[in-house]
Structure formats: structure tokens, C-alpha cells
Amino acid sequence: MTVAVLVIVGLPGTGKTTVAKEISSKLGCGFLDTDDIVASSVGCPVAQYLRTEGEAAFREAECRALEEALDADAIVATGGGIVTTPRARQVLASQRTFWLDCGDDEILARVDDGDRPLLGDEPRSSLARLRAQREQWYREVSCVCIDASGTLDQVVERVLKEAQKVER
Questions:
Q1: How many Cα atoms within 13 Å fall on the side-chain side of residue 118?
Q2: The Cα angle at residue 52 between residues 48 and 55, in degrees rounded to 5
Q3: In the chain, what are the domains?
Q4: What's the alpha-carbon Rg for the chain, to the nearest Å?
Q5: Gap between the Cα atoms of 28 and 73, Å rounded
Q6: Residue 1: what pLDDT?
Q7: What is the tens place of the pLDDT at every residue in 66-110?
Q8: Residues 47/90, Cβ–Cβ less than 8 Å
Q9: pTM as predicted
Q10: Which residue has the higher pLDDT, 167 or 128?
């Protein structure tokens, strides 16, 4: 396995995919999203696969997608829950992994019209639960936590500034 240019992790709605795409454009390198890889390999949208096959099957497919993505010279965006799997955490810890985070109100505004099965019917309490469960894992696998509030350009600049300081 090679080392990706950098990997982005964080809760749903923190902008992982959007930020990773913009960084890949600025750096002139590839972009991969583990959710896209999973959807392609299972033949349906991630939300549908998660609902029909369950979280355990999805997490296994997600780990395979991460390993595949890291074989490319690319900026890699991950699904928000990728850190729940010990195998994925081990892989992420060996990468230049950056954790995007912002306040719950901002996250909830961003995901308001999206299909987010793990946020369910009570998104605020579900998000608080996910944050409590995953925060230590994001910290464990990441080089640094980046403030994901503000404009896309601001967040991208924060990531790029920190990326210059980090070698893994």
C-alpha cells in the first residue's frame, strides 16, 4: 500500500468530500471518496446498502475501499464512520490524515436535506452520540484537527497550511 497525498476524516456534514475535491484541484492530483468506491463495488448508493445490508457489511466494504483508495496518488475523503473499525484506524494512523470538525449546528444545517441513515429521525441527538463515540478515534488517527467552519476556501487553506507541517 502506498501513502495517499492526504486523507480527510470527520463527522457527516463537516465537508470532507467538498474539501478533498477542492484540494485535489488545487494540487493537481487525484481525488477519491471511499463512499463512491463502496457504491461502485456494491452496485447501489451507500445509504441504500447501509439500510439493506447493515452497518457491519458496510464497514467491511468501507475498509476495502479505503485500502483501494490509498493505492492511488490522491486526496482521499472517507465516510464519517470509517474510524469505527479497528482495521481502518490502523490504516488511517499510518497516513497523513486530517480531521475536519465544526459545531453541531453547522453540521446539522449542512446535512438537512441529505440522506444520512445514521442520523435517523433525531439528527441532533444522533449527531451528539456519533461525536461522543468517534471523537477519540478521529484524534487517534489524525495528525491535526482542522476547523471546518467558514468558507470552503478558508477550510482548504487551513488543511493545506497544516499539511505542509506534517510528514507521515
A1: 22
A2: 90
A3: 6-161 (3.40.50.300)
A4: 15
A5: 10
A6: 38
A7: 999 998 889 999 998 999 999 999 999 999 999 999 998 888 887
A8: no
A9: 0.89
A10: 128
